[in-house]
Design brief:
The protein has about 450 residues and is mostly helical. It has one domain: Orthogonal Bundle (Hydantoin permease), CATH 1.10.4160. The protein is about 80% helix and about 0% strand. It contains 18 helices and no strands. It is a multi-pass membrane protein. Keywords: Membrane, Transmembrane, Transmembrane helix, Transport. One of its GO terms (cellular component) is membrane.
Length: about 450
């Protein structure tokens, strides 16, 4: 290739970038409410087990493909292929992941824009701009387009700067900030009336529910999707890792950070919901389940912050800044997938490719905004419920059935010379060949 690729300059840089990709809005608002609605600590326990027993092996498969190929998702997979049929299959998987990442970013940017507008709202209130504050949290075409464009501009700015100066540099800044904000908010919420009840609801185990089919499927889906599987992202990030690095331990570290932040998010969101209930805010839907998703973030929690009085402005600001950072660390990885493909396959300069692709996704986002009532949910469902599990499953099939086992071992041994004698190599090849594709297929079937 005639285009300089760059790479992560440090192990910490990769861990922050990969964890940033994995830690997104789904972790912050999806995991906590699923936990509370599926047996509390029973769900947490099942999620942790499945994250390491099933999601981590699939995560490792994508990292290995990337580091072996040292290229974008399509090229990396085609380097493994041995004949034209396999190369066509590799293209379908790799390019499918690229398209999936672009689709996710197209609706993700809209929701992230809402997070940014809600973060600015308390600042406007403090400045006495009541009319502006109300506009910032009201649905309107102008607001949605403006903040979607603002968020996408930030994403484009970071990706234009490349791997080391863009993705790695900003991930190193944003991820520690995210974790610090999360911990500070948890500490504050725990001092409020009702938090103890929320803490009990989140962590009180109902072991009888551990083997419920719906709980198992929900936990499995959360584990797979929270690690950005099926979007080509981890293949691209894997291609930026030095050959000397131990991928087995790197994968464990990223998985640990991801599940830890999801767990911490639960320690914030669920007690906060019960604090809101103590203040008279409804937190249960008509069917008896905890309110989740956008209604939780844009209705229940703002009502809680409003009930806190003056200090609530600062808490609201901190929370929505936290959400905006979580969105940004994920969005930069989603844009990198399509950009790396265009840069390397067509030798387009990174700055030009990033701007062109970013603006194209923004135009599609605006199309979604104009048709918000049906298109947002449709694109979200198409990309996350259909695209991600199918691509992730095919990726596992590719590594388990097409890539020669001896070649896989040789790639892992470059950073871990004794890996074939350890537990990982005794289990992982069989997992990726049989268990992971079956498990992902179950998640997909359940989503239908």
């Amino acid at each position: 290739m005639g285009v300089a690729r760059g790479g992560f300059s440090s192990r910490f840089g990769f861990i922050m970038a990969a964890a940033g990709s994995a830690v997104g809005l789904g972790n912050i608002w999806g995991f906590p409410t699923q936990t509370a609605s599926n047996g509390g600590a029973a769900f947490v326990l099942v999620y942790l087990v499945l994250a390491f027993c099933l999601a981590y092996p699939a995560f490792m498969a994508e990292l290995l493909i990337g580091r072996y190929g040292q290229a974008n998702a399509v090229t990396s997979m085609q380097k493994i292929s041995r004949n034209n049929r396999q190369k066509h299959f590799a293209f379908v998987i790799g390019f499918g992941g690229v398209i999936c990442a672009a689709l996710i970013l197209s609706f993700y940017g809209i929701i992230a824009g809402w997070m940014m507008s809600y973060a600015i709202e308390p600042v406007a209130k403090l400045a006495g701009l009541t009319g502006t504050a109300n506009w910032l949290i009201s649905q309107s075409l102008v607001r949605n387009v403006l903040f979607t464009a603002l968020f996408m501009s930030l994403t484009i700015f970071i990706i234009r700067r490349g791997v080391e100066q863009g993705i790695e540099k900003w991930s190193k800044r944003l991820m520690p900030m995210l974790i610090a904000l999360l911990i500070l908010l948890i500490i504050y919420v725990f001092t409020l009336e009702g938090a103890k009840e929320g803490f009990t609801a989140y962590l009180n185990p109902d072991i009888s529910r551990v083997f419920e089919p719906n709980l198992l499927i929900s936990a499995l889906g959360q584990a797979f999707f929270s690690l950005s599987l099926g979007t080509s992202v981890m293949i691209v990030y894997g291609s930026y890792i030095a050959k000397k690095e131990n991928l087995v331990t790197l994968g464990v570290q990223v998985t640990l950070i991801d599940v830890s932040i999801a767990f911490l998010a639960g320690l914030l969101i669920i007690p906060a919901m019960y604090v809101a209930q103590a203040q008279g805010v409804a937190i249960f839907a008509e069917d008896g389940s905890l309110i989740s998703g956008s209604n939780l973030v844009f209705t229940v929690l703002p009502a809680l912050f409003s009930g806190m009085g003056f200090v609530g402005l600062f808490v609201a600001f901190g929370f929505f800044v936290l959400m905006s950072i979580a969105a940004l660390t994920s969005s930069i990885s989603m844009l990198e997938g399509p950009v790396s493909y265009v840069v390397e396959r067509h030798e387009v300069p990174r700055e030009k490719a990033t701007t062109f692709i970013g603006l194209a996704i923004l135009v599609f986002s605006i199309l979604i905004v104009v048709n918000l009532s049906w298109m947002l949910d449709f694109i979200a469902m198409l990309s996350t419920q259909y695209g991600q599990p199918i691509i992730a499953m095919l990726c596992c099939v590719f590594v388990g059935w097409i890539w020669h086992r001896s070649d896989v071992l040789a790639e892992i041994k470059q950073g871990n010379s004794t890996v074939e004698y350890g537990l990982f190599w005794k289990i992982w090849p069989w997992y990726i060949k049989f268990i992971c594709p079956t498990a992902i297929a179950l998640v997909f079937w359940h989503s239908l």
